[in-house]
Amino acid sequence: MDHRNNKNSHNSLYQSIRAMPKVELHRHLEGTLRLETLAEIAHEHKIELPGYDTETIRPLVQITDDDQAHSQAYLSKFAVLRGFYQSREIIERVAYEAVADAASENTIYFEMRFTPLALTKVRDFRMDDAADWVIDMVEQASREYGIDVRLIMSMNRHESVEIGQAIMEIAVDRQDRGVVGLDLAGNEADFPGVDFEPIFRKARESGLGMTIHAGEWAGPESIRLAIDVLGASRLGHGVRIIEDPDLLQETRERGIVYEVCPTSNIQSGVYGSYEQHPLKAMYQAGLLTTINTDNTSVSALNLTDELVRTVEQIGLSIDDVKQNILHAARAAFLTPGERECLIGRLTAEFAPDTHISPQ
Ligand SMILES: [Zn+2]
Cystine design at 179: which of 41, 113, 174, 187 (Cβ 3.0–4.6 Å)? Predict the structure, then answer.
């Protein structure tokens, strides 16, 4: 994992958050690749790039100080990354490394999402094959590293409903192998996603969890559609709920969960700075916020970095961070028994001398 931009890796706040047991619900495999691995793949497969060292590759796949804070700059990195999935071994390797890296910073429960189409396009692999490669490798890595990992499959609203239907069927068929949810991502401003309603209804009826990217690059109307039409219980981002106090209250009462990714929002231009980011206001309003990275390598951070920033730059306390981790555990796409077990582990570690009863 690359920490070039992390100035805080040796301070005590960083160390205490790194040691804390953590939960992450929103991270994309396609934005979670080690730079060193990308350099090796590029060299081995002679991917058309200006050079094969990490510093040449970095600005092509990672946000740097030279990038404008805009969704186009953010998304342009994924366009380059799609060219790296040249073999089964590469897909297996990046899935394995993503799990290893999460475990190395004491993430104990991790829901990783991946987009089968993104992994298969360049080589025309079958999406079900690619899904199986990811599933098998994640299972192996999670066993080796002692981390509980579940998978969410993503589809893009700017791609066809037929592709979405195929991805949903692949996910439904693999529920006994750690696939727990379905996600709608992509361009929400121009493609609201209403056509995906039958796909998400079928997935919900089959027992998959529903998380939908909404209220990031479009406003509260996109959140309304995600929860009322598409049936999301969790929102990817959802930060623009802050623009609609009535809907905010409604989602609080309905227990909608927010997968907030502050750095991603700043890099893609949704907010100008951490100080302007609404995470703290959302949390203080009683929303079920969780804190996530979205894409660790694109953003040049890990979950520890992101949690440190929420303390140092957004103004959460350490207790607030722990509450957000508990929110994430309560929102995990697990069975009730598994969820209680996870919450019990966290509360025991967060307050070893007291007994906090899980709500
Ligand atoms: Zn996302």
Answer: 174
Dihedral over Cα of 318, 320, 326, 332: its sign: negative
Query: Does any domain span residue 3?
Result: no
For residue 4, being part of any structural domain is answered with no
Quote the domain boundaries for residue 135: 12-350
Distance CA 231, CA 86 (A): 35
Integer angstrom CA distances of residue 16 from 9, 22, 31, 105, 323: 11, 12, 26, 11, 15
Residue that is written with structure tokens 């490669």 in the block? 133
Distance (angstroms) between ligand 1 centre and the Cα of 248 equals 21
How far apart CA 292 and CA 61 sit, in angstroms, is 19
Its pTM stands at: 0.94
φ and ψ of 111, to 5 deg: -100, 110
Number of domains the chain is built from: 1
Average pLDDT per run of 10 along the chain, which is 359 residues long?
50 95 98 96 94 95 94 92 95 98 98 97 96 98 98 96 98 98 94 96 98 97 98 98 98 98 97 97 98 97 98 97 98 98 96 53
Q: Residues with catalytic annotation?
A: 216
Question: Measured in angstroms, how far is the CA atom of residue 288 from the centroid of ligand 1?
Answer: 17
In a domain? residue 2: no
Tell how far the Cα of 348 is from the centroid of ligand 1, in angstroms: 30
* Residue 299 belongs to some domain of the structure: yes
From ligand 1's centre to the CA of 185, what distance in Å?
7
